[in-house]
Every structure is written in C-alpha cells, then in structure tokens.
Amino acid sequence: MACTFCRIIKGEIPCMKLFESEKTLAFLDIGPLSKGHALVIPKYHGAKLADIPDDQLSEILPTLKKLVNATGATDYNILQNNGTIAHQQVHHVHFHMIPKPNDSEGLGIKWPSQTGDMDNLKALCEDIKSKM
User: Fold this and answer.
1) Please, which domain of life does this record's source organism belong to (predicted)?
2) How far apart are the first and last CA of the chain?
C-alpha cells in the first residue's frame, strides 16, 4: 500500500488544501484537535526528518507561520513526530500546527522533565557538537 500522504500529493486521496507549492503541501487535519489544526508536509517522501534533504524542507517553517497568521492563533503548538514509539502514525514527515484556544481544545501534553546532572549534560553537549 502506498503512503497516504504521497497519495494525497498525487491527488488520489482528496484533502482540504490550504497551500501548495513545488515542495510543500498544507491541508486541514481530518481528525482535528482544535479549529484550524493543519498539517504541512514536504512533497519529498521520507519517513523521518533526517530522511528529507535540507532543500526540501526550506518552505516548511514559512508555511507554518503563514498558517498561524491565517488562523489567527495566538497560542499554538507545532508538532513533528519521528517513529512509531514517538507517536508517528503516518510514516511521511509531517508537521502539525495545532491552535490552542483554551485549556480543553488543542494539544494536551505532559512534559516529564527531570533535573539534569550538569556534568553529564556538558559531556553530552560536547559529544553532540562533535558530530554536527
């Protein structure tokens, strides 16, 4: 079975298109968490963010910003998941723009932060920097 989002890009599955360019497609989410919940996808297929060439991602943030302005959202989440255990359901890179108009609508998340050990964080920082 072909990728659902690739089929949407090809016009095989209809969508409520908000914006389209050579590299990017934006459309309303059919299972919205709030009014104006939209998806922005690169037309280049890749399951995870690291699979997409940089030049194919160049319009994603500007398109998300246009959606924020067009919906009038003042509080909102931009969400992008990579992999099944990270809650990705369609394995084609996609970004959610989810307006958060009040406490009950939009994305509800818990942030299970921990107090970091500064020495471990410094070592991790150096390790990551050395690989960039």
Assistant:
1) Eukaryota
2) 36
How do residues 60-118 score in pLDDT, each as one tens digit?
999 999 999 999 999 999 999 999 999 999 999 999 999 999 999 999 988 788 888 88
Q: Tell me the backbone φ, ψ of residue 106, rounded to 5 degrees.
A: 90, -165
Q: How many CB atoms lie within 10 A of CB 113?
A: 6
Q: Which residue has the tokens 């959610």?
A: 96
If one counts every other C-beta atom within 10 angstroms of the C-beta of residue 41, the result is 24
The single residue of 37, 92, 94, 96 carrying the catalytic annotation is: 94
What is the C-alpha to C-alpha distance for residues 97 and 36, in angstroms, rounded to an integer? Answer: 8
94 is catalytic: yes
pTM of the model: 0.91
The residues with which 78 forms a beta bridge, in sequence order, are 97
